[in-house]
């Protein structure tokens, strides 16, 4: 007797799940309508400029004229300020610890690069470019000249470029720690992708200046909020391209790995990630360029670097100074772009069967 009832409950459960999937959009729209009505009621009740009586809105329709009614004002600014204030009061010690840790790492990287002899730094960049580009001499020489000309433009630009690079290194390192695992999670689960994709879209839609605001509210002025803003601004392309690279791995290769009894971890580390590495390096390249753009913008909140020189040149109406700093930023961008992109092209050549056959 239990089997018919068990089958009946299973049918009812499956029918309920199917109806839930079909009516998912309806439930979503109803939920959005409820939220909208709640926001209207909240904005009206908290407004100091609302009419004395609610019935006045229906007696006098002048509020439907050209100007927006002053009482129809969402107190979002008030909520955000209260939220950040409570966050700092309750968890300020956590943000202080993060600030001290990032500042300590930043000073280590910056002091190491500044104290190193400049010819040795240029030599290190040249050697890195040589092997990253697959031993391409033209790219190596070009990057070496660009690195030399950063300091050759003006001696102060050498130190400023190192300060900018130090902030970028830490920001990109944070992007790698968070971005690659997120991309892997998106590639493995459609549900996770559907949750994260709207967040990434929002992160890439918000103007870059807005990323400085939460950093300032939580960490104050200086390099740490610039690192946080750089991380938030630059991580989306790395997440997207990691997800794309893993999903583009040939299904036949995955099936072959399954046939040999490979576990999920073995397939990920031994098959999917190596084949997806060219796409991941493209993500790193895009992440690097966006990080440089963000670090330059972060000069407005007291971050030292090449962006600071551009800002000072504009404030003093010193076109030459701003132009020199701009050229130095372009040279630094070329150096970073050539290293990351050349390494991605080298990986692409190694993993592409067609190119191997031609050779």
What features would you describe in this structure?
The chain has 359 residues and is an all-alpha fold. It folds into two domains: 2-59; 94-354, MetI-like fold, CATH 1.10.3720.10. Helix content is 82%, strand content 0%. The chain is built from 15 helices and no strands. The longest helix is centred in the N-terminal third of the chain and has 40 residues, at 76-115. It is globular and about 80 Å long. Residues 355-359 have low confidence and may be disordered.
> Going by CATH, what is the homologous superfamily of the largest domain?
MetI-like
Gyration radius (Cα, Å) is 27 Å
**Residues in helix, %:** over 70%
Second CATH tier, the architecture of the largest domain: Orthogonal Bundle
Count the DSSP helices.
Answer: 15
How many strands appear in the DSSP assignment? 0
CATH topology of the largest domain: MetI-like fold
The residue ranges in which pLDDT falls below 50 over 5 or more consecutive positions are 355-359
Structural class estimated from helices and strands: mainly alpha
For the terminal residues, how far apart are their CA atoms? 71 Å
